[in-house]
Write a structure and sequence with these properties.
The protein contains five helices and no strands. It is mainly alpha-helical and 124 residues long. It has one domain.
Length: 124
């Protein structure tokens, strides 16, 4: 059980860092984020809403106040990382490794969340 907790917290810390640092970059280095989104073919109006969600996601996972929001945050992180990897592959810029790490760590964190805190069900 102790190993499960260690794996969970390491994976969760990594995804919180990856998505949190991405959100901070969107806020504090908007010009770079704008250029990056344009090069990937994404609309730039989505930068700030995505940054807000990348901050709220780790909060939902770490606080565990709402199990529905926690699961939604995991799903959002996974979709964001998968779509980011796909976009980078399509553009061919080679920036796929952060996305692959995010996919792996999000999956590991979700699996070990179930192992550490139990397989629960909640009425939505």
């Amino acid at each position: 059980m102790k190993n499960n907790k260690i794996i969970y917290w390491i994976a969760t810390a990594i995804i919180c860092f990856l998505f949190g640092s991405g959100a901070l970059m969107y806020f504090f280095n908007y010009d770079y984020a704008h250029q990056f989104f344009v090069s990937l073919g994404f609309p730039t109006w989505i930068i700030y809403p995505l940054a807000v969600l990348k901050i709220l996601g780790p909060i939902a996972i770490l606080t565990r106040k709402s199990l529905f929001l926690k699961e939604l945050a995991y799903a959002g992180f996974l979709f964001d990382a998968i779509l980011a990897v796909a976009a980078h592959i399509m553009v061919g810029d080679g920036f796929i490794y952060h996305g692959i790490a995010a996919i792996i760590m999000t999956t590991v964190s979700w699996i070990y969340d179930r192992k550490v805190f139990g397989n629960y069900t909640q009425k939505i």
